[in-house]
Write a structure and sequence with these properties.
The chain has three helices and eight strands. It has 244 residues and is α+β, with helices and mostly antiparallel strands. It has a domain at 133-238: Immunoglobulins (Immunoglobulin-like, Sandwich). The model has no long low-confidence stretch (mean pLDDT 77).
Length: 244
């Protein structure tokens, strides 16, 4: 039989301290070593394949510089294009304005040429006739439908010493409901019946008329009767509406 241990037997208790940070540090160190080894192997492989990190960095920097230069040149080009476009727009507007000014000047010159020809005909008629004459006739629209203004300009040579008195009248010839018809100023005039006047060089007469419905005007027969026994002046004009 085994004997029980006595009081003199010695029992030993061993206590060991557990330090987990050392294990973690060891694992981290091993991981770092492995990563460094892998990175070194990767770089060694790239260098063996002809890849240079420093050269690649320099090339990367050069490419960035070239891109920045291209962007700067592109911005300058765009600025020049914008300025050129603005200049073209300004030139076009200037050309349009010059064209309008030239058209206005030509219109004014044409009107002045007509006025000059008119006054020349008053001062010295080309045909040598010094008596009274009908210079021009215009038919203008009035404010109401079927209403028109008939304007007659009379002249006589400027070397006439005395004023001339006369009476002007006219008729409008056309068709009414398919039949020929002639309407006198006394029948269609809104205010004037006969236009009496006295002038020395030139005179402008105007009468407003109202044409009946379904009447189609064709010609105007104008008659001017001087008061001093001279022969009447008769002239026919086609009906033409003038909007100027």
């Amino acid at each position: 039989m085994r004997s029980r241990p006595g009081h003199n037997d010695t029992q030993r208790l061993v206590v060991r301290r557990y330090e987990p940070w050392r294990a973690a540090a060891l694992r981290a160190g091993l991981s770092a070593v492995v990563l460094l080894a892998l990175w070194g192997a990767f770089e060694w492989g790239r260098s063996r394949g002809g890849y240079d990190v420093a050269e690649a960095a320099l090339e990367h920097h050069a490419l960035h510089a070239e891109i920045a230069d291209l962007k700067s040149r592109l911005a300058q080009t765009e600025g020049k294009l914008v300025a050129s476009d603005v200049a073209r727009k300004v030139d076009r507007e200037a050309y349009v304005q010059v064209g309008r000014s030239l058209a206005e000047l030509q219109t004014r010159l044409g009107a002045q040429a007509q006025e000059l020809a008119f006054y020349r005909s008053v001062i010295d008629p080309n045909d040598g006739i010094t008596g009274m004459r009908i210079q021009r006739l215009k038919v203008l629209p009035a404010t109401q439908p079927r209403h028109f203004r008939v304007r007659i300009v009379l002249v006589q040579a400027a070397r006439q010493d005395a004023s001339g008195a006369a009476a002007a009248d006219f008729t409008v010839d056309g068709t009414l409901r398919g039949r020929a018809a002639s309407l006198s100023l006394a029948a269609i005039g809104t205010s004037s019946r006969v236009m009496n006047f006295s002038f020395r060089y030139f005179q402008e007469l105007e009468a407003e008329i109202e044409l009946p419905p379904q009447f189609l005007p064709q010609t105007l027969q104008v008659e001017v009767r001087p008061s001093k026994g001279a022969a009447p002046i008769r002239q026919s004009y086609p009906w033409k509406l003038d909007t100027n």
